[in-house]
Amino acid sequence: MFEESEGFKIIKNYLAEQEQEPFQFQLKTWKTYSKGYSGMVIAPTGFGKTFSVFLAVVIEYLNHPEAYQKGLKLLWISPLRSLAKDLAKAMEAAVNAIGLDWEVQVRNGDTPQNVRRKQERLMPDVLLTTPETMHLLFSQKRNSRWFTSLQCVAVDEWHELLGNKRGVLTELVISRLLTIAPKLKVWGITATIGNLEEAQDVLIPYSHLKTTMVKAKERKKLKIESLLPDTVDVLPWSGHLGASMSSKIIPIIKTNTTTLIFTNTRGQSELWYQIILEAAPELAGLLAIHHGSIDLKLRHWIEDSISSGQLKAVICTSSLDLGVDFKPVDCIIQIGSAKGVARFMQRAGRSGHSPYETSKIYFVPTHSLELIEVAALKEAVKQNKTESRSPMVLCYDVMVQFLVTLATGEGFIKEKAFNILKQTHAFSYLNQDEFNWAIQFITQGGETLKAYEEFHKVILDEDGLYKVKNRRISMLHRMNIGAIVSDAMLRVKFRSGGYIGVIEEYFISKLKPKSSFILAGRVLEMMHIKDMTVYVKRSKSKKAITPSWLGGRLPLTSHLSHFLRIKLAEALSPGIRERELKFLHPLIANQNDKSHIPKSNEFLIELITTKDGYHLFMYPFEGRLVHEVIAALMAYRLGKITPLSFTIAMNDYGFELLSDQPIPLDATNVDALLSKTNLMEDISASINASEMASRTFRDIAVIAGLVVQSRPGSRQNNKSLQSSSSLIFRVLEDYEPNNLLLRQAYTEVFNQQLEEVRLQAAFERISKSKIVIKQAKAFTPLSFPIKVDSLRNAMSNESLEARIARIKQQTQNVD
Amino acid sequence: MQICETTVICKTEPLILTNLRAVYWPAQKMLILSDVHIGKTAHFRKSGIPISLEVLDKDLQRLGYLIDRFKPETLMVVGDLFHAEFNADVTRFKTWIKHYTSLQILLVKGNHDRSLLRLYEHLNIKIIKEELELSPFVFTHDKTQIEAQDTNFYISGHTHPGVFLKGMAKQRIKLPCYQINKQQLILPAFSLFTGLNTNNPPKSCINYAFTDTEIFKL
């Protein structure tokens, strides 16, 4: 009987001393683990999901200490470094209280050299780490010996890894560990997502492991309230509402103990920090700012200050989405759309941490239309619908990186490496040809006929092992391990000493010396740049630029967009309880007056002519990424009618095609333009014609080691290897069009931005809708936010010469 | 290959700008170019990044075409003829350049040409450390700051200049270019394996942008 085992009794007593009792799901995890199961635990934050798996391993050890060797027993993989530190503390406290002689240690990029060397001599019993650090360990000589005694690998916050390439890295870690540690059990821990079964299959696709899924019944109570501005703007544009909303935010900060204020981008968090301090200077010293570009030490200090209750409010980004409980936090404010149901709920859950408290979250719109999103969010939360996270498959870039990692470490035998890949979910469809291509790519650099004599990245040894022998290549590769691709970053440092954070090279290259910018809530004057470091001093300047970090934008999930369509259709006659929709009524009426409000069975198209050119707006409400693809498709099909050049802008509601020539769309041809016939062929063609693949190639090039990332603050900047992914993209298109990494860029546009099914469904819906074409004289409330979006793509099916000729004609400043 | 030319007057001297990334100075029978970065692709290959051999072939083909077209006596490279260490690309260049025995080659050292003297052995290249004055011009590699009272006219490279051609409907086309003002001419990078830099152009400069089929002022 498990309940009578020594180990269980010890843990039960330990919890009783803390005046706690195990939750049902914890008990179930412990029991099944003791029977040798692997599995997945699903529980909301704050209910002790960490202890479900951790204590399972402890109990099993206490019951059978004789079965264990020295060394690593539990490997704990979590997506965030900052999580590891606090988790380790909690585990250590438990281990000490129980009286176990286990070592609990963290290993990641912040771990000091001497600690690492010590770990390499003797691994601790529990090691908390990240997927990237695991791959780094795999790239070391004789690394297998560290893992032979391993009993359990736990993947924490699996939902954060699933759906991106870090998830694929994690899958590979597990697959390789299973070949080293025969007794290994695999456990995932996740928050609620739409595809739990699939999430488990991706993590544990191994038929020889017994698996189970443990769901907590406990649920967090959630209270959502939106803060309405005093008046509703008829033309709502991004950021416009900012300052006027601060008077609503400040009383909330003051009445709560500690408030976390979430913004969507680092740039926005900097802006709001300034706005709030300006409106309430008495908060100085009690208000902090936290995002991914702020120096690590500073961030740790802020996190500690939240825990100890020294701060009234912290403005943050997704940097604080995850993490251990901050006890004093009792209130959350979300500024701007959270873009997804799951993220919104996760953020809400950061307040009111004790299991039975209610989480409070306030929503602050940055433009009026976002209020429709709140209405949609509330509906989704009410119906308990959260998004799915689709796993990534056949990432050749990750395969190439992984093979070089193995070659850098112990070296690999071809067949064994193929099996490690093939066993994972991500590479279950990998075929021998693709694998051979990768081997060719890392040993000879390209196709058979194009072997380069000076290319010796990976070498086949006489004993059949593929190995990296060149030290410089090992070093370059270790620096490049991982799947998080960021823009080139520079560290920012006071001339007098002290780091502030990092900033994109792209942003700083546009600044002249002596100009001012804002980082970590401080106004800084740029002095000079040396060794990938920007030296600055404090500035008194009133005019400072807030950096806009690229790539900080999240697309709306398909889920939320579905609810959004419904709410918009209802908006003309809102229900009594729909506070947000009622408030928005003037704006909705204006849209209806100037153009139209699409009912749920209608599809709206607006044609507007201004001095900028000819605008075409469509509103599929499918989220930014899908719109990008549909926009390219429309540009492609319109271009078949007559050669045209477009710039394309989109948001989560719709997209704009802007041309200098009249757009040939009317009631007679609109059905053909939106037709399902040849849909996938036309989309392929339009992706080929657009810049989308070149952009997805950016990450692929870095992950596959084609572009060397420079590390902020590093003296080793590898300047002579500097190139851009777009340059490499061009070279490959010209000289090696069959390169699999290049092909991956095109397929990723497909798989990442639109699942074929979802797109077919969207066109199915559109084809059944009544198409409403409106000519408007000026921008409408729906079109305006898209029009002001500054990030634009371009697409053209005219020749470069023809485009240049016409621009010359139009502008006349060209000879 | 299609060559397009346009003549500009700098300090009363006519110079022919071409869309093949080099300038011809008729008075001195001199072909001027910058940032050839020979050895860059081999340097990448040695570091485990496979870049095709054909990239260098394309650059050399274009250089050969220009030499045939203008029949210069002197080839002036204003820096970064080589990218990094002595490697297979450099050997190929050495073999290739032997066809042009009568051509005098001058190199103003660039940041990439630092100290690897071995690169230039048997190449018959005359090396200039900082700048070379050949009235009415001063040839140098990197000239971004020029004092207002400086009366010299500098011909340089280094920045890999590019420019946006902006049209109606928010169209933007990025093109390589020459940049000219009263005090200087900045050349585009000769190598195609380089990026384009559109930041911080010289004060009140005129851009001569080009494509495969034309060269024009904007």
Tell me how many strands of chain A there are.
26
Which stretches of chain B are poorly predicted, pLDDT < 50 over at least 5 residues? none
How far apart are the termini of chain A?
90 Å
Widest β-sheet, arrangement of strands of chain A: 3-4-2-5-6-1-7
| Biggest interface, chains and residue tallies | A-B, 57 and 40 residues
Overall, the morphology of chain A is globular
Largest sheet properties of chain A: 7 strands, parallel
Strand content of chain A: 15-25%
Instruction: Let me know the average pLDDT of chain A.
Output: 87
Structural category of chain A is: alpha/beta
Write down the Rg of chain A: 28 Å
Give me the number of helical elements of chain A.
31
Helix content of chain B: 10-25%
Count the E strands of chain B: 15
Oligomer: heterodimer
Uncertain segments of chain A: none
Radius of gyration of chain B: 17 Å
Write up what this structure looks like.
The complex is a heterodimer of chains A (815) and B (218). Chain A is an alpha/beta fold and 815 residues long. In chain A, 42% of the residues lie in helices and 17% in strands. In chain A, the strands form five sheets. Chain A has a seven-stranded parallel β-sheet with strand order 3-4-2-5-6-1-7. Chain A has a six-stranded parallel β-sheet with strand order 8-13-12-9-11-10, sandwiched between helices. Chain A has a six-stranded mixed β-sheet with strand order 25-21-22-24-23-26. In chain A, a hairpin with a 2-residue loop joins strand 18 and strand 19 (522-530). In chain A, helix 15 runs parallel beside helix 26. Chain A is globular, with a radius of gyration of 28 Å. The mean pLDDT of chain A is 87. Chain B starts with a strand and ends with a strand. In chain B, strands 8, 9, 10, 11, 12, 13, 14 and 15 form an eight-stranded mixed β-sheet that branches. A seven-stranded mixed β-sheet of chain B has the order 1-2-3-4-5-6-7, with helices on one face. By secondary structure, chain B is of the alpha/beta class. In chain B, 48% of the residues are buried. Classes of the chains: A alpha/beta (815), B alpha/beta (218). At the A-B interface, helix 18, strand 23, helix 27 and helix 31 of A face helix 1, strand 11 and strand 12 of B.
